[in-house]
Amino acid sequence: MEFVGIAFLVGFTCLAVASLLPRDVSKGKSGWRGRCSLDELAEKIEMTGGPVHVALYRQSGNLQRELGEYSDVDSALKEISKAFRRAKIEQVRIWTNSSGELDVRRAFYNGRGSSEGKKFGGALIQMLK
Fold it and tell me: Residue 61: inside a domain, yes or no?
């Protein structure tokens, strides 16, 4: 009976140590990720060229509006910057930054008022093939 208890304790300790070890969380999300201002956004992205498709999302994750196709990434960035500024959002968080996709969301969740989750939350730019 003591052997079972010791084996359980050793196993539990190994799992606890393994959960504390650093791991690569950026698989499939290459490039710089984190918080930045809208003015710094164009410098931090890896996507270049075009054409691209742009969609705007609410905080809840539901689609707010599809902006459609743009000939290049720069014009798409100008449009999503307008949407962020219209919502009075100056700080954004880059969630996915690769050559084929850019997922940008508001840096801080706004949960005030009865319209919680209905406010503008972010934008998704995807490269068209």
Answer: yes
Query: Does any domain span residue 93?
Result: yes
Contact 127, 100 (CB under 8 A): yes
Q: How far is CA 15 from CA 10, 20, 23, 25, in A?
A: 9, 9, 14, 18
Tokens encoding 30: 């290459």
Task: Tell me the C-alpha distance between 26 and 28, whole Å.
Answer: 6
pLDDT tens readout for residues 58-99: 988 888 989 899 999 999 999 999 999 998 888 999 898 888
Evaluate the CA torsion angle 51, 70, 109, 117 in order and state its sign. Answer: negative
**Each residue of 20-66: pLDDT tens digit?**
776 544 444 567 778 888 888 888 888 888 799 999 999 888 889 89
